[in-house]
Amino acid sequence: EVQLVESGGGLVEPGGSLTLSCAASGFTFRLYGMSWVRQAPGKGLEWVSSINSGGGTTYADSVKGRFTISRDNAKNTLYLQLTSLKTEDTAMYFCAKARSVYSNAFDPNSRGQGTQVTVSS
Q1: How confident is the model at residue 8 (pLDDT cuts 50, 70, 90)?
Q2: How many CB atoms lie within 10 A of CB 74?
Q3: Do residues 53 and 78 make contact, with C-beta atoms less than 8 angstroms apart?
Q4: pLDDT-above-90 percentage for the chain
Q5: 3-state SS string for 3-57
Q6: Which residues lie closer than 8 Å to 51 by C-beta, 6 or more apart?
C-alpha cells in the first residue's frame, strides 16, 4: 500500500523559510517521479514542483527561484525547501507520486494527509 507522510509545516513570517519532508513507503521510491502540490483555503489543488527519477526538476512560475525540490532515494524521502515565503504561499502542502514509472504526471489520490504552511506576520 502506497503511503506518503508529509511533515515540516508551520507558522512563519513573510520572508521566512521552511523545509518540508515526505516519507514514502509501499512502492519503489527511486523509480517514480514525485511532486509537491498545495491547496489554499477555498481553492483547488495547485501543482508546485516535480522531480523525476533521474533528479530533473520543474517548478511552477509562482515558486521558481524560491522553492527547491529534492529527493533522497536511500531514505525514501522527498523534500521541499521553501524560502522567501509570501502570504500567498499559505496552503496545505501535499506530496504525490507519479501515476506510473513512465510518467511524471502526479496521482492526486496518492497524497498523504498534508502539512500546513501558514505565512503571516
Answers
A1: very high
A2: 8
A3: no
A4: 95
A5: EEEEECCEEECCCCCEEEEEEEECCCHHHCCEEEEEECCCCCEEEEEEECCCCCE
A6: 33, 34, 35, 57, 69, 70, 71, 78
C-alpha–C-alpha distance, residues 51 and 33, integer Å = 6
Q: Are 77 and 21 in contact (CB under 8 A)?
A: yes
State residue 65 phi and psi, 5-degree precision.
85, -10
Count H helices and E strands in the chain, helices first. Answer: 0, 11
Query: What does the alpha-carbon distance between residue 93 and residue 111 come to, in Å, rounded to a whole number?
Result: 10
Q: Is-contact 82 119, C-beta < 8 A?
A: no
50, three cell numbers? 516535480
pLDDT of 65? 97
pLDDT of 103 reads 87
